[in-house]
Design goal:
about 75% helix; Brnchd-chn_aa_trnsp_permease; transmembrane; 2 domains; mainly alpha
Length: about 240
């Protein structure tokens, strides 16, 4: 009996690992997607528009920010600027992750359309042990993208019948999951300082200035804190 092809076995294992790791994220995203769809319909969007927005934008924070200011006609410039600020963190996440993925330049550009906070955190955690392969990333990306798009669509169809997820704390599910993922990175001094400074600055800016400025402020503060806390030999 022929032995299994090592390449195929590795490919299947990477896909299996990607599906296993993204499963809790996908489950946590369901109530958030339902909430987005319901709120978007209440703002005047059709279920088809909600589906297209979730599929083509695929950025929960930016989508919620957009529907918060959604009027007719839509304030295109304001929406674009808010989206830019909210998603600016993806530049930092991409720069951090790119050296750790086994993808060509073209594949990386395509893959990063599906970049999310959770996919980044899971990939960074996996990169502590091994490089992130295309199969692993594709498994995560396909599941989370399809899950988010379908949840938004069902939320739009259900509309007002969904109720308010805040009653059961479902609105905090994604945030809690991401905090857990970041906590798994380790407890080094640099990590603790970076997370603490970034969180504190983001909270203060959100309290006294408001969204979406807290996103960029927290990211920049975290970068500065990481640089200052890093050993001198790393900075030089």
């Amino acid at each position: 009996m022929d032995r299994a092809n090592p390449f195929v076995s590795t490919y299947r294992r990477e896909i299996r690992d990607g599906l296993r790791d993204i499963a809790p994220v996908a489950v946590a995203a369901i109530p958030i997607g339902l909430l987005f769809g319901a709120v978007a319909v209440a703002k005047g969007m059709s279920p088809l528009e909600v589906t297209l927005m979730s599929a083509l934008v695929f950025a929960g924070g930016a989508q919620f920010a957009a529907i918060e200011t959604w009027v007719h006609p839509a304030p295109i410039a304001a929406l674009a600027f808010a989206t830019l600020l909210i998603n600016a963190r993806h530049v930092l996440m991409g720069a951090s992750l790119t050296p750790k993925v086994r993808l060509s330049r073209a594949q990386t550009l395509l893959a990063y359309f599906f970049l999310t906070d959770e996919a980044w955190a899971l990939s960074e955690r996996r990169a502590l042990e091994r490089p992130v392969t295309g199969a692993y990333w594709a498994a995560m990306a396909a599941v989370l993208w399809a899950n988010w798009t379908l949840a938004g669509t069902f939320g739009a169809i259900l509309g007002s019948f969904l109720g308010d997820p805040e009653r059961i704390g479902a609105d905090f599910a994604f945030t809690a999951l991401f905090i857990g993922l970041v906590a798994g990175f380790g407890r080094s001094r640099v990590t603790l300082v970076t997370v603490a400074v970034s969180a504190a600055v983001a909270a203060l800016v959100h309290r006294f200035i408001g969204a979406p400025w807290h996103v960029a402020s927290g990211a920049l503060a975290g970068i500065a804190a990481a640089y200052c806390a890093a050993p001198k030999e790393v900075r030089s």
